[in-house]
Amino acid sequence: MLTSLARFAMSRPRAVLVAALLLMIVCGGFGATAKSHMVGGGYLTPELESVRANDFIDEHFPGGNPNLIVMVTSDGGVNSPESRREAQSIADVLGRDSNVTGVQSYWTNLTARPDLATALRSTDGKRGLIMATVLGTDNEVQNRAVALSERLDGDRDGVQVRVGGMAGTFADINHQVEKDLILAEAIAVPVSGILLVLVFGSVIAAALPLMVGFFAIAATLGILRLMTLFMDVSIFALNMTSALGLALAIDYSLFIVSRYREELGNGLDTRAAIQRAVQTAGRTVVFSGLTVALALAALAVFPQPFFKSFAYAGVAVVAAAVGAAVLLLPAALILLGDRVNAWDLRKPLRRVLGRGERTAVRPEDSGWYRLVSGVMKRPLPVAVATTAILLLLGTPFLSAHFGTPDDRMIGTFASSRQVGDAVREDFSANMASSAVVVLPGFHGDTTEIRQYAMELAAVPGVPAVLSSDGVYANGDTGVRKVAAGIAQMAGPDGAYLSVGTREAPFTEQGKAQLRALRAVPAPGPVLFGGAAALNEDTMDSVISRLPLAAGLIAVITLILLFLFTGSVVLPVKALLLNVLSLTATFGAMIWIFQSGHLASVLGFTPTGSLDLFMPILMFCLAFGMSMDYEVFLLSRIREEWLASDRGAAANTRSVALGVARTGRIFTAAAGLMAVVLLAVATSEVTAMKLFGIGLALAVIADATVIRGLLAPALMRLMSTGNWGAPKPLAALHKRIGLEEEPAEHAPAQPVSTPVLVD
């Protein structure tokens, strides 16, 4: 199939490239509006108890579960004429908006509900809150919150107004992610271009991976926009899949173009060199892409739209990168011919530095060959020492603490973050983290509600409970009723209570408080909502699917690598090495982001927990990328092995030659991918920093420590056992294995072909 694709592209190169350009323009134009159709979260699913509780309130008690908080600040105090005037103006704007309901504020509750008013006023008396519910789907809520924020945010007459709450937070994150994407690509593309010139020498050769990368980015935008037509797509997919498409496109192009130039150096003509490059490196690219895509597809087992959007978008983006690499590159290369090596900028640079021209040397004389040969002379000490270091780096992962993200994900420049910080630090109760207790279908009398509210108020860390019967506060003398209740909190379809809290929902104290609240006997069936309940339910939902996702990835990896190599040993070795590498990476992420050791350097706020969604996504991506290099390396080692006498010495030599022929390429690929990922890490959103830095470390560690030290050491220890398989499986592989196509029109080559080195 690959030979047929290469021949097709070479027979109609201009038509292929023009069609790709038109498709890129269409996808880019269609996908230009993708951001405005994405959701900021995507973490919740309808079946969660906390979501059902929130939905019940939205349906039967509009405004009872506010998602928008407007903070009014004045040095003159909340009761100053300026504050009152501004608060009234904001309340009028919200009240006239048909998509906003349940508007309540400090100023409107001063007389009717003084205890609630106290909760809505800061302890220093300078800040007051206005709370409301923005109606609509997730996407509509975010877009409406953006419009409200643009209208309300600002400083007027000595009064500062900031918009926050869940709706405001995701609106800010959406806006920031869009800005960060532009900056990341502005950094990644030119830096990648410079590095590609250094790798290839030729400007023309360096431009080819960027050409494929631009196509992948445009295709990504089009794919994401198409997905928004029939499902919720997380805003984080915008940055991540664009970075993935660019990184993989550069990687795959680097593999194919490098092999093409190698085959030209071996004496093949242009057409034969292209065909051979596609048959070898192209086969590796297709297989690698299949592995990455299936690893991402495992995310579909999670019910959250966040994971599903990455599963579907990731598979499509990988397919776009692979398709562009195996179709566009042959078309471009046949038109370029020998001119692929034109504009070699290193030649004038060498003349300036007084260095001679590059010389062709045997792989056995390269630094990679000497390194790997040295490793395989002492395989056991190297394997033990390297494994011990990686495990040591992974030890922080033992203290991992996970939670769902909040406004602290974004920098303090964002209005929602400023509101969140103030509510956490300057108010007696964290209104953004209040729990809601829903009693669907409850028709009992006020005595039962009163008793239940008093017992809830007695839970440590609960300053007050608001119900239809009254406001119950927990003071020095015990729980007492301090204000009248709100009749609208009970109706023919049930009732609900609002439970204030001083505990952050993602901390151990917040979780313990939720358990204590759940333990209070209720007068009927009860549903718990609010930030802490959402966090707990979401974590349980995700963790319960982890074994299935991990099992699918493991099985897929073992099967695909068996089909690729015909060995049952190498797939197990690859699986273990990937897990070991990722353990060290995640340990570093816990040390950096959970413990906050580099918070001031990287510019983020540590919360003592890590967003569980991001490590799972990173695991699937990093696992797929690690397999990318594993497949590329094994492909060349297997070539050498099949051309040898297949003894123990041949195994050692094959490993050394395979690494020598590919080491410079996969380390260059890893460096280029790290540039793209670190460009993503320039984001002002903590999740994107975690994603970029974590994956960059994983890729670099895998391409150096794993492929240069641990993998060769283990392959030397296992010797000819590397290639073994039981007879039934060997027969199966012979029938259905993904064997490489034989070379056509290629002159016989010696076992050691000279390669160009600096």
Count every beta strand, where a strand is a DSSP E run of 2 or more residues: 16
How many helices in DSSP terms?
A: 24
Q: In what range is the share of β-strand residues?
A: 5-15%
Low-pLDDT sequence parts: 745-758
Alpha-carbon distance between the termini? 36 Å
Overall mean pLDDT = 84
Which structural class do you get from the secondary structure elements? alpha+beta
Evaluate the radius of gyration. 30 Å
Largest sheet: 7 strands, antiparallel
- Global shape: elongated
Helix content: 55-70%
Structure in words:
The protein is an alpha+beta fold and 758 residues long. It contains 24 helices and 16 strands. It has helices at residues 2-11, 13-31, 49-60, 81-96, 114-119, 138-152, 165-200, 203-227, 236-265, 270-297, 305-336, 346-353, 367-377, 379-394, 415-426, 446-457, 508-519, 531-565, 569-594, 599-602, 613-642, 648-680, 686-718, 727-736; strands at 68-74, 100-105, 127-134, 154-156, 159-164, 359-361, 402-403, 435-440, 464-466, 470-475, 478-484, 490-491, 494-499, 527-530, 610-611, 755-757. The strands form four sheets. Strands 8, 9, 10, 11, 12, 13 and 14 form a seven-stranded antiparallel sheet that branches. A five-stranded antiparallel sheet has the order 2-3-1-5-4, with helices on both faces. Strands 6-16 form a two-stranded antiparallel ribbon. Strand 12 (490-491) and strand 13 form a beta hairpin. Helix 2 runs antiparallel to helix 11. The two termini are 36 Å apart.
